[in-house]
Amino acid sequence: MIALNSPSNPAVEVVQTSVVNTEECTAEKKDFCLNGGTCFFHRNTDYLMCASNYSGQRCEKLILGTYTKTHQSVVLIVVPVTAVLIAAFILLISFYR
User: Fold this and answer.
1) What is the Cα–Cα distance from 81 to 97, expressed in whole angstroms?
2) Are 70 and 51 in contact (CB under 8 A)?
3) CA distance 4 to 37
4) Tens-place pLDDT, residues 41-85
5) How big is the CA angle at 40 (ends 35 and 46), to the nearest 5 degrees?
6) Handedness of CA 76, 77, 78, 82 (dihedral sign)
7) Is 46 left (phi over 0), alpha (psi -120 to 50) or beta?
8) Quick one: which of 65, 61, 66 has its CA closest to 51?
9) 2 CB-near residues (< 8 Å, 6+ apart)
10) Nearest to residue 56, comparing CAs of 33, 40, 25?
11) What does the H/E/C string look like for the chain?
């Protein structure tokens, strides 16, 4: 079975997701694909198309996304926290007057 969108098979690159004259794999081969992968048959070969964020021979490997802090995400956190702290400080001062 060939995994189309797998880093372990860099020679195969999927440019277009629609394939002409394909059939679904047989019932016993459908269970071969894990994590929502799709098995299909084309020109006497079984192929495997992994769902987003999965790769490997059976779509068994989870590809973790990366997260980078941007200026916008820092502002979205700092501004509300600062506003809450200022409001708490004003309430505390007005309570002790």
Assistant:
1) 25
2) no
3) 11
4) 777 777 788 888 888 888 888 888 766 667 777 788 889 999 999
5) 100
6) positive
7) beta
8) 61
9) 9, 12, 45, 46, 47, 48
10) 33
11) CEECCCCCCCCCCCCCCCCCCCEECCHHHHCCCCCCCEEEEECCEEEEECCCCEECCCCCEECCCCCCCCHHHHHHHHHHHHHHHHHHHHHHHHHCC
pTM of the full structure = 0.43
Between CA 76 and CA 20 the distance in angstroms is 47
- Tell me the residue type at 79: V
Residue with tokens 């809450």: 84
- Write out pLDDT tens, residues 5-43: 544 444 444 434 454 566 677 677 767 788 888 887 777
